[in-house]
Amino acid sequence: MVIARRRTKYSKLQYQARARVAKALAHPSRLLILDAIADGEKCVCELTELVGADQSTVSKHLAILKQAGIIDDRKEGSKTFYRPRICCLQGLWECIESVLRENLKAQQKAIGQ
């Protein structure tokens, strides 16, 4: 018996690239940062206060987001300001919220609510 190998829609490299972006998004502080800069660029000092972590930790989060191509930065004197590089995050948030709502419905159904 010969088993046909299913072709994938994308190459392994494309899936690996997607995984790097997803991994960059997979931290609550980075999601908070992205939400904050969606309203306009922010400097590290503003983000440090918002996240509630030290500057080195926030800078590491920013570096991960920048390396993934999700944000850009701009230097002004001694300050660095960050802004989204992409404009599709609202759709991503809506998708995530949809998944959360569906999961909640399934859990409520499971316990008879």
Describe this structure in words.
There is one protein chain. This protein has 113 residues and is an alpha+beta fold. It has a domain at 15-86: Arc Repressor Mutant, subunit A (Orthogonal Bundle). 59% of the residues lie in helices and 12% in strands. The chain contains 5 helices and 3 strands. The chain has helices at residues 12-25, 28-37, 44-51, 55-67, 89-110, and strands at 42-43, 71-76, 79-84. It has a 3-stranded antiparallel β-sheet with strand order 1-3-2. α3 (44-51) packs across α4 (55-67). The longest helix has 22 residues, at 89-110. It is extended and about 65 Å long. 12% of the residues are buried. The model has no long low-confidence stretch (mean pLDDT 91).
